[in-house]
Write a structure and sequence with these properties.
Strand order of the largest sheet: 6-5-12-7-10-11
Strand content: 15-25%
Structural class: alpha+beta
Largest sheet: 6 strands, antiparallel
Distance between the termini: 29 Å
Helix content: 25-40%
Length: about 290
């Protein structure tokens, strides 16, 4: 599906992740393997990509594409039948190898086909899975989003925490994270909070709606905490979120965590954090509108 290089493959992956996020569907990465023996290597790729927007990996024999390695009408139709898809993201070289036009192939198969140039101008190290993980662990979620084509997302379920946020006037949602989550480095982040269940509603909130949030990732140094937590504070709304599957999208780090000598100093800083989050997300929203 790509030009065979790691950077080319990763460019296709990130394009698929961004398109799936835009459509609100799962992103499934398809590997074509020439033999069952090579399928084992896919497991390593799965571990690396888990938590970076790829929801599942599908392994198919190479015969899923046409004999010359390209994607022709019959190959695309066969793939669409096996893997019910909204959009297929393919390397244009592979489509051309099958003698097909992406849009025409999609129309015949009843699925949209996007051809993504796997050899674009960005440097390979800025495309790789390792680069994205490194930036996330360093707290540079903005750089990771530039490569991914969308903000990094972490999914989890809201569980009971220690209740400190409510006592400070900033009630947070304590998250039990999904397996293989790639959690950004410690910090206070500007991001978006969404309840996954679109049929849910409570208080001021509704499922499937994206709300601005200040997201804390730390061990709560002011309280000498030992357990690292991910706690979004959703701005301007309230609801009973316990037990709800949610997602948090990370836009930018506001600051790194620090220990405060007084609760008053902590609260004053948290108020500044919230204002900074509003500014960052307002700018991001405006940038998307103009773009």
């Amino acid at each position: 599906m790509s030009d065979g290089s790691q950077s080319g493959r990763d460019r296709l992956v990130w394009s698929g992740v961004a398109e799936a996020r835009r459509l609100g569907v799962a992103c499934v990465l398809l590997f074509l393997v020439p033999s069952p023996a090579e399928a084992a290597a896919v497991e390593d790729d799965g571990r690396l990509l888990a938590g970076l927007g790829v929801d599942a990996i599908c392994v198919q024999p190479l015969a899923a594409a046409s004999a010359n390695g390209g994607w022709d009408g019959s190959a695309v139709a066969a793939l669409a039948a096996r893997l019910p898809a909204v959009v297929l993201v393919l390397d244009p070289a592979a489509v051309a190898g099958g003698g097909g036009d992406p849009a025409a192939l999609g129309r015949r198969a009843g699925v949209a086909v996007h051809a993504v140039d796997a050899s674009g101008p960005r440097q390979p190290d800025r495309l790789s899975v390792a680069y994205v993980r490194e930036r996330l662990l360093a707290g540079d979620v903005a750089a990771a989003a530039e490569t991914l084509g969308c903000p990094h997302r972490v999914a989890g379920v809201v569980v009971h925490g220690e209740g400190r946020g409510s006592g400070l006037g900033f009630p947070t949602a304590n998250l039990a994270l999904a397996e293989h989550s790639v959690v950004p480095g410690d910090g206070i982040y500007a991001g978006w909070f969404t309840v996954a269940d679109r049929s849910w509603s409570d208080g001021d909130m509704a499922g499937g709606v994206r709300y601005p949030a200040a997201i804390s990732i730390s061990r709560n140094p002011t309280f000498a905490g030992r357990r690292r937590t991910v706690e979004p504070y959703v701005l301007d709304v309230s609801a009973n979120l316990y037990g709800q599957p949610v997602t948090t999208d990370f836009v930018e780090r506001v600051r790194v965590p620090e220990r405060f000598d007084s609760i008053e100093e902590l609260i004053a800083t948290m108020r500044k954090d919230v204002e900074n989050v509003r500014l960052i997300l307002g700018a991001a929203r405006e940038s998307r509108r103009l773009g």
